[in-house]
Specification:
Length: 316
């Protein structure tokens, strides 16, 4: 049994593929010492059937749910889609309704936030995959990478404002409806893992400036932030200063190269880089570990101990 993790929560993405019963999945996370979970977007109604009684009995708390929740198999509303930025109004309204549905579950479970991937600038092929292949084979300084990156950036920057406007419109509608229902639930728009996806930290800031006072903020995914910094999209240390007061929740994990969802400090062996996120971790209202299945219980325990020690030295 792992040590009590207190206010820290843990995403079900770690072990969802190992379980056919939701209760077994939650019990395994409780064994790590977590009292709270984030229910991720692959949690089905069937899994929920044995999780909900545990929530009702107070055996587990829910910090957050990840849109679209429960699982929706339609790829149009999956985690890698245009979603809140759809030009097609019927699709955009459907995406809004799905997010309201996720917020309703969050409210029912006493969760404080819904994590959402708000959208992207669409490309006719997966340019991010192509860029990552060049990154690994030739490096980010190579002529091939620089050429394709500039092509990606040109399209992204020319269309970003249009999609950002629609994402803002959708969030405005969603936040008004959440407020009207009296739900104490924040919408957290997540930093993403592909270069054409939204938002960057600066794009997120522009949304929050528009929606001041609304229950919407940044869901800062550190591993994704590290990937986008390495690829060249933004600078975490520079941009986080502007966004730090808008953070409603975080995904704690680290990136080794461009591979994400590893235990901070333990898998990278880098004792310094992740430190830039410590002030955000200390202040974040909702703190969730989002780790891959390859992370072992003893590695999770070691990583958490190191993180707590780092945070304690920050306070001195």
């Amino acid at each position: 049994m792992g040590k009590d993790k207190g206010i820290y929560s843990f995403s079900t993405c770690w072990n969802i593929k190992r379980h056919s019963a939701g209760s077994g999945m939650i019990d395994e996370i409780r064994e790590l010492g977590f009292r709270n979970v984030e229910l991720n977007y692959n949690v089905t109604q069937e899994l929920l059937s044995t999780i909900e009684p545990m929530i009702e009995r107070g055996e587990i708390g829910v910090s957050s749910v990840h849109n679209t929740f429960p699982h929706d198999p339609d790829p149009d509303y999956g985690t890698d889609s245009v979603l809140l930025g759809f030009e097609d109004e019927v699709k955009r309204q459907r995406a809004i309704e799905l997010l309201i549905g996720s917020a309703e579950y969050a409210n029912r479970y006493g969760a404080k936030a819904v994590v959402v991937h708000p959208g992207e600038v669409p490309f006719d092929y997966n340019i991010d995959q192509a860029l990552k292949k060049i990154y690994h084979e030739q490096g980010p300084e190579s002529p091939a990478y620089v050429k394709l990156w500039s092509e990606m950036l040109e399209r992204r920057e020319s269309l970003a404002e249009r999609y950002l406007q629609r994402i803002g419109d959708s969030l405005e509608d969603i936040c008004e409806r959440i407020a009207a229902k009296g739900w104490d639930v924040s919408i957290g728009i997540e930093t993403r893992s592909r270069c054409y996806q939204m938002p960057t930290l600066r794009e997120a800031k522009s949304v929050f400036d528009r929606l001041k006072g609304a229950p919407v903020g940044l869901w800062y995914d550190f591993g994704h932030g590290m990937m986008m910094e390495r690829m060249g999209l933004y600078d975490n240390a520079r941009d986080m200063e502007d966004i730090k007061d808008d953070v409603v929740g975080i995904h704690i994990h680290e990136t080794v190269g461009l591979s994400d969802h590893w235990c901070p400090y333990v898998h990278s062996g880098d004792m310094d880089y992740f430190d830039r996120f410590l002030p955000i971790i200390a202040a974040a209202p909702v703190k969730v570990y989002e780790l891959k299945a390859a992370c072992k219980p003893d590695e999770i325990e070691q990583s958490h101990d190191m993180l707590l020690a780092k945070l304690a030295s920050l306070e001195v």
